[in-house]
Design goal:
39% helix; Rossmann fold; 435 residues; 15 helices; 12% strand; eight-stranded mixed beta sheet
Length: 435
């Protein structure tokens, strides 16, 4: 039976490579539709959580979904990549970070492609979902796979279909977000559309893998530039004594021609702080300078320093020195109500404040301890929010506005508050500073 017939009859197996914030939700969508899934990951912790404990390791993904899929035998997981031939469709969901020089670190994609290359067989479908620069699918994956003597569109099928995950978004999920798909050949697109349509509400096909790769970059560059704009306006309006949040609220009443974006302590997550630089890097190959994108990156990257300056100012007005001051940072994850620390500006804030001699603790029920990270290694545990604990600190810095925070309790007992998210908008008083 060829792949097309297998897909039509739901008799195909999906292999998800990388079981993180993108791969795990996608694996569960297929598994819960009765399609067999093999999850591949080098992290034995994740494999054991799925197979032995039948529990989730990502807080916004319910353990019940994993338990159900494992017990129905539609989901299994392994660190053994020799089992890749057991899957008919291979979907790559590995990280694409930046290196120390803010250039693309393609090692995860290249290593994954080389491993697949060892096991690729006739009839295999491969889709890359990791955000990357235009040309990656053709220049890296296609070359590796065709070097094995297989012909794309005939012996195997290759696509790029960018992930569009937004963790803990109550309005949209993996299944309900339309999915862009670009293939190397028409046959690749046809097979890819058939596979993804099993779990995604709408597939939007484009003319090439490069167009699909570029669409993801455009989405995130659009956000990065607009966030940079409001971050810059926040600083300008602050000097003028104007509240940026009030201005955005007023502008948002226009029913056309305006989309609200909101300032913050910096950019977080795996996409917006990173993806634009994939295009700036690739553009240099064509001798093009992406000034607009790079300027937005500079503004957003500088926001933690702006926040620390606000902390300086707030402490100074209250006759306090930042050196030796006890500061409680509220919210460690990059976005409210999730446990994702990737590129979180809260981590940079801790580093900057500690460099200035402050004693910094944090509180976040979603991240009770800080694991060892690529850039940071803090030996800290989350502080419990209560009246006594809040009163111990010279200043409370709100970085991530989790819904569960008791803002009335915090405001009533904090000596000084620096708010980067407008979470205390209903409160008034000299102790409150906006950053």
């Amino acid at each position: 039976m060829n792949l097309k017939e297998k897909v039509k009859q739901n008799k195909f197996t999906v292999g998800i490579i990388g079981l993180g914030y993108v791969g795990l939700p996608l694996a569960l969508e297929f598994a819960n539709k009765g399609i067999k899934v093999i999850g591949f990951d080098l992290d034995e912790f994740k494999i054991n959580k799925i197979l032995k404990e039948k529990k989730s390791y990502i807080k916004h993904i319910p353990s019940a979904k994993i338990k159900s899929a494992v017990e129905r035998k539609t989901l299994t997981a392994t660190t053994n990549f020799a089992k890749l031939p057991d899957a008919d469709a291979l979907i790559i969901c590995v990280p694409t970070p930046l290196n120390a020089n803010r250039e693309p670190d393609m090692s995860y994609v290249v290593n994954t492609a080389e491993i697949i290359g060892k096991y690729i067989r006739k009839g295999h479908f491969v889709s890359l979902e990791s955000t990357t620069y235009p040309g990656t699918t053709d220049e890296i994956l296609l070359k590796i796979f065709e070097s094995k003597g297989l012909k794309v569109g005939k012996d195997f099928y290759l696509c790029f279909s960018p992930e569009r995950e937004d963790p803990n978004n109550e309005k949209y999920s993996t299944a309900t977000i339309p999915k862009v798909l670009g293939g190397v050949t028409k046959e690749c697109v046809e097979i890819g559309k058939m596979i993804y349509e099993k779990v995604i509400v709408k597939i939007v096909t484009v003319s090439s893998t490069k167009a699909a790769e570029s669409s993801k970059l455009l989405e995130n560059i659009f956000r990065s530039i607009n966030i940079a704009m409001v971050n810059e306006l926040k600083m300008v309006f602050d000097k003028m004594g104007i509240d940026i949040w009030e201005v955005i609220e007023a502008a948002s009443t226009k029913p056309f021609g305006f989309t609200p974006f909101y300032p913050g302590p910096g950019l977080g997550g795996h996409c917006i702080p990173i993806d634009p630089f994939y295009l700036t890097w690739k553009a240099r190959e064509y001798e093009i300078s992406t000034k607009f994108i790079e300027l937005a990156g500079e503004i957003n990257t500088a926001m933690p320093e702006y926040v620390v300056n606000k902390v300086y100012h707030a402490l100074n007005e209250n006759k306090k020195c930042i050196k030796g001051s006890k500061i409680l940072l509220l919210g460690l994850s990059y976005k409210k109500d999730i446990d994702d620390l990737r590129e979180s500006p809260s981590l940079k804030l801790i580093e900057l404040l500690q460099d200035e001699g402050a004693v910094v603790d944090y509180s976040d029920d979603y991240v009770t301890t800080i694991p060892k990270l690529r850039k940071y290694e803090f030996n800290k545990k989350s502080v419990l929010i209560n009246k006594k604990n809040i009163a111990r600190y010279d200043l409370v810095l709100l970085s991530t506005d989790h819904t569960y925070f008791d803002y009335n309790l915090i405001f009533a007992n904090a000596k000084i508050i620096v708010d980067t998210r407008n979470a205390f908008k209903k409160f008034k008083g000299k102790k409150l500073y906006k950053a």
